[in-house]
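W.,

You were right to be curious about this one. When I first looked at the sequence I had no strong expectations either way, so I just let the prediction run and decided to look at it fresh. Below is the sequence, 279 residues in total, followed by the output.
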Amino acid sequence: IFDVLYVNMVRAGESAGILDVILLRLAEAREREDDIRRKLQAAAAYPLLVLAVGAVTVFVVLTFFMPKIAGMFSNMKDLPLPTAILIGMSTKIREYWMWILVPAILIAAIFRRTTSGGKGRMILDRARLRLPVLGTFFLQADIARFSRTMSLLISAGIPVERSLALSSDTMNNSLLKAEIDEVRKTTVQHGRSVAFGLKNAKHIPAYLQSMAAVGEEGGRLDEAFVDVASYYERELERQIGIITSLIEPILILLVGAVVGFIVFAMMLPIFALTKSIAQ
């Protein structure tokens, strides 16, 4: 139930006689993480609902309604191109849905296994950081979690080398984990400062590098990491608002365009029949 970070924090608190303070800080850190997680879930709920409703609507139309309507146009020699495409898609889905579903599941399973660790995971995490808007969000989430953990561990009296190792384990991105691990090796093996190691890390933001340098010079490294964590937590909240405001209209337009295309393709032959009857 309790992870390595929690156990080490409690151990340090007992050794220093400040167990109450450590437990309070742990509780505050967990509350902040839960708060951000709840905001993410709330932001993702509406877009996921739109996607689910849109997917179900398209599936029902193509598999149940389209075959019945297609029978009305069986005697037409030249179907409009959108209608022909829609009828072809409907026919393929109904006849070969198993051959589509099984390979899709296999590809998803292979992709998940390939990207679960090693070079595949590293490639995927590097691609995530390069995504527009979302890449910044993923980076800031990991940096905020790392900084908050570092401040807790250092304030509890845990050595910097051990603090870096434990804090890197809280990061989801394997590329960032590898860079922090390299910082840890540089700090311990070569006697360098944490700020020096961070400055040589490619994906670590300049703000964290500068704050670490200021904190080390002033002997308040834990406070510097607290400031960094607070800054990026505020940025996360702002990013959540931006992403939500962008995703919602885009998804609505996308689903609307797909459903609109289906209705347009279904109505075109009817317009053609009406026109021919009128003539």
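Here's what jumped out at me. The chain has a mean pLDDT of 83. And, maybe more interesting for your project: Residues 251 and 257 are 10 Å apart (CA to CA).

Coffee later to discuss?

I.
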